[in-house]
Amino acid sequence: MAEVKDSPRKQYADSTIDTKGCFKNLNDFERHKLQELWAKLFDNLTVDIDEVRDSHDHLVSPLVLDLDDKDLEAKAAKSKDPVYQDCFFGETIQDKVDFKIVSAEFKTTRADNTLDSHIWASIREDVPDTLILRFLRARKWNVNDAYDMLLTCIKWRHLERVEEIIFFGEAQNEASLTYKGTSYIHGIDKLGYPIVWAPSAKHFQKDQSFHQIKRYLVHMMETARLMLKPPHEKVCLVMDLKNSTLANFDRSFVKLFLKYLEAYYPECLSVAILYKGPWWFSGAFKLVSPWIDPYVSQKIMFVKGSNELAPIANLDQLPKEYNSKNSYSYKYVLPKPNENDILLDTEGREAALKERNKIIEEFKTLTKQWFEVGKATQEAKKLLKPSDTEHDKHKKRASSAAPPHKGSKSSQQKSSSAPPEHSPASGTADSSHLNGNTVHTESPVQLSERELLYDYQLKLEIELDIHRRRDKCQERLSMAARKLDVYTRAKSFYHRTKVISEDGSIDWSKLE
């Protein structure tokens, strides 16, 4: 294997997860950029999703990729041969069983069609900041660019009915795609990321419509997303190219996958391993290279054999065909009767939805306080001398910058050395407002350097206090959303095989 030099792959060499810019790992700059993005979202919460405009005041219009499948469907209709085992073109998983896999009718969790409702339908089980931060990192912390990208994703999910795809799950997926194991998730790599296996020799463009490819891809990505929790926010992808021919090279599928990965599921890829590429693949790779985001291209590794997977994953985490120490080989398990009866439990669903929405309102209140106080903190910081804004010096001077106790000699000196709360006109925060998170932001009047520093530190203290409480709140929100998920998502192969347990935990030993 080539020497690991760049940061996306270097983390495997160092056995450390890169958590910079991720949930609970933000510096001041990143925290304030996150606040700015949330503030922009809050400014438009009541706007109808169809009327949402980007930072350039243009209507948000995501690119919806589609192909004309009429010729393909016409040819398939004339054929009496299955495309894989006993699976025929256009046959779904529902067609493979004699009972209704999902008997409940789809009902959205959204209260209305506003951006507000669509945000939470998009966040689903994620800790909210983990999703928002993906877009900030993908756009190099440019708030307007991240905002536009996020809105495009939310609008795309609305147009492609992603919430409905999740609800019906495998039932409406093309059976051949699922039976083949065109892609499947198994095991974790050495950093704890789920591994997605994609054996390309099983894929042929003629075997299914482009519509079904899109549906299948969304379902797989959303299933993998259910397995991600901080700090494990990404997946390891293995594109298995062994035994593949040019007949397996589907340009439209590759373009679709890369578009989804870059635009709608950013920062979800830890590394992409191209395994045992055949002689013709270098030419095909040159064709698709222009479609690959430069940052994603840094994560691509070319591997010639299973022994070269060792730095990425332990042998007991690999399927049997990769010289693994476990005996697992992918084999699809059909849905069972009544496994989705919980989707009919409207009372349980409404109770879970009510609890999630209650925490959403709590989170929104904290978030508004958080970005407002954060703005006041930044304004206070601008008034300091450059030397006073260095983080280490703040820590060292925190105790000396604290206001003197009333009655001490220093408190009886001239007003220029009095603590900020003694000057209401100064606009600084009175300590009595700490618990209520009230921060005055009027222009300071004749404050000394020492008072300005104390003012900044007090505001920062309030901001960080809200930040900590907000983090705890969004973790509770994620847990509440996972409890709601069981009423809004059909069981998958990974539920039936007990990989995903009832409490949402993941155990790959169930498939060994």
Overview of the molecule:
Helix content is 41%, strand content 5%. The chain is mainly alpha-helical and 512 residues long. The protein folds into two domains: 29-344, CRAL-TRIO lipid binding domain (Phosphatidylinositol Transfer Protein Sec14p), CATH 3.40.525; 359-400 and 419-475, no CATH class. Strands 1-2-3-4-5 form a five-stranded mixed beta sheet, with no helix packed on it. Helix 2 (28-42) crosses helix 5, helix 5 crosses helix 6 and helix 9 (210-225) runs parallel beside helix 10. The longest helix has 37 residues, at 346-382. The radius of gyration is 27 Å and the shape is globular. Residues 382-446 are annotated as: Disordered. Residues 382-392 have a biased composition (Basic and acidic residues). InterPro entries: CRAL-TRIO_dom, CRAL-TRIO_dom_sf, CRAL/TRIO_N_dom, CRAL/TRIO_N_dom_sf, PITP/CRAL-TRIO. It comes from Smittium megazygosporum.
Architecture blueprint of SSEs:
Elements: H1 7-14, H2 28-42, H3 70-78, H4 115-123, H5 128-138, H6 143-159, H7 162-168, H8 175-180, E1 184-188, E2 194-199, H9 210-225, E3 235-240, H10 251-264, E4 269-275, H11 281-288, H12 294-297, E5 300-303, H13 346-382, H14 391-397, H15 449-485, H16 493-496
Parallel strand pairs: 2-3, 3-4, 4-5
Antiparallel strand pairs: 1-2
Helix pairs in contact: 2-5, 2-6, 2-13, 4-6, 5-6, 9-10, 13-15
